[in-house]
């Protein structure tokens, strides 16, 4: 069992890291603004499932193997940038047919959420650091990995919801055809700016 003081330290690390602005939260807020909380559920589910998968992978020790290979982080970074630009293109793409048909085609799916996390070097680093700091080699590793992974998933769900809901609250009231076109340009531009930020950091 993980000691209470470790849980306090874990929350002090995980909450600020997960809730702070970054590429992942920007995409979640954008999805919430475009599709609402309900329409974002598939993307959000994929997003959190990827966090859980990465927790299992890094917790099981893959992080130690990858630490000596900085080129993997570079590949992830540029793949993530390419994926953000792909998402931007989806927001810019003019809808043919009805507005509802166009929105349905551009809706983010489970695989989009999963890829958004898997191609985000910040999330890889955050989870790697989490396990390197809070795993106690003197105690049962599988039990700690399960506990930390479950706690991290809970922190992610709780901290990501305000971003999605905030995007919906601010932007979903603007639903005219013109407002939707403007939103598409704003969201697409946001994705390009996030990609630029990732490229320069």
Task: Describe the protein.
With 201 residues, the chain is an all-alpha fold. It has one domain (22-200). The chain is built from 9 helices and no strands. Helix 2 (23-59) runs antiparallel to helix 8 (141-171). The termini are far apart. Residues 95-99 have low confidence and may be disordered.
Summarize this, please?
The chain has 9 helices and no strands.
The coarse overall form would be globular
Q: What is the total tally of β strands?
A: 0
Summed up, the helix count is 9
* Element pattern in H and E: HHHHHHHHH
Number of discrete domains: 1
* Helix vs. strand class: mainly alpha
Low-confidence stretches: 95-99
Overall pLDDT score: 80
The oligomeric state is single chain
Question: In this structure, how is the largest beta sheet organized?
Answer: none
Strand content: under 5%
Helix content: over 70%
């Amino acid at each position: 069992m993980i000691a209470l003081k470790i849980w306090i330290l874990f929350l002090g690390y995980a909450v600020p890291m997960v809730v702070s602005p970054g590429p992942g939260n920007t995409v979640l807020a954008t999805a919430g603004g475009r599709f609402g909380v309900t329409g974002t559920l598939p993307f959000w589910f994929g997003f959190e499932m990827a966090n859980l998968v990465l927790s299992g992978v890094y917790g099981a020790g893959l992080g130690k193997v990858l630490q000596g290979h900085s080129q993997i982080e570079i590949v992830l970074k540029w793949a993530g940038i390419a994926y953000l630009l792909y998402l931007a293109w989806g927001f810019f793409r003019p809808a043919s047919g009805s507005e509802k048909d166009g929105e349905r085609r551009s809706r983010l799916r489970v695989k989009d959420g999963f890829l958004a996390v898997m191609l985000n070097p910040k999330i890889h680093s955050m989870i790697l650091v989490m396990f390197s700091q809070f795993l106690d080699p003197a105690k049962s590793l599988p039990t700690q990995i399960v506990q930390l992974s479950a706690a991290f998933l809970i922190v992610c769900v709780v901290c990501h919801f305000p971003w999605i809901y905030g995007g919906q609250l601010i932007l979903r009231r603007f639903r005219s055809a013109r407002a939707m076109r403007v939103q598409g340009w704003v969201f697409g531009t946001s994705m390009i700016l996030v990609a630029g930020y990732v490229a320069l950091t």
